[in-house]
Amino acid sequence: MTTTTPKALPTIDPQRCTGCGWCVAVCPPHVLSLQVPGPEPWGPKCSTLHDALGCTGCALCAVRCPFDAIRMVRVEAAGKARHDGPTEAS
Fold first, then answer.
1. Which domains does the chain have, with CATH numbers?
2. Is the pLDDT of residue 19 over 50?
3. Which residue(s) pair with 81 in the sheet?
């Protein structure tokens, strides 16, 4: 069985994520987890994609998030995300 790169991957906005865990609960392949984003092992938790290859791109996490903290980003090739929005000028 081979794993293909999904068409979209969830990106989590740590400023909006409250660590409620709804996204983790609805993720069918269980590729999201709650982790403390800083170096200390305590503090507020944030959702994290820990297995990008295992992600199916179903977007259930983004749909279920009550804080609109998850956005699906299109993936063109392994490790390369397509950016459809405006870019910053150098």
1. 8-75 (3.30.70.3270)
2. yes
3. 75
Q: Is the dihedral of CA 44, 42, 28, 71 positive or negative?
A: positive
In whole angstroms, give the CA distance from residue 42 to residue 62. Answer: 25
pLDDT score of 63: 98
**H-state helical runs in 1-90:** 22-26, 60-64
pTM for the full predicted model? 0.73
Strands, E, within 1-90: which ranges? 8-12, 32-35, 46-49, 70-77, 80-81
> Residue 50 pLDDT more than 70?
yes
Tokens of 88: 């910053």
Distances (CA, A) of 27 to 37, 38, 45, 53, 69: 20, 24, 17, 14, 15
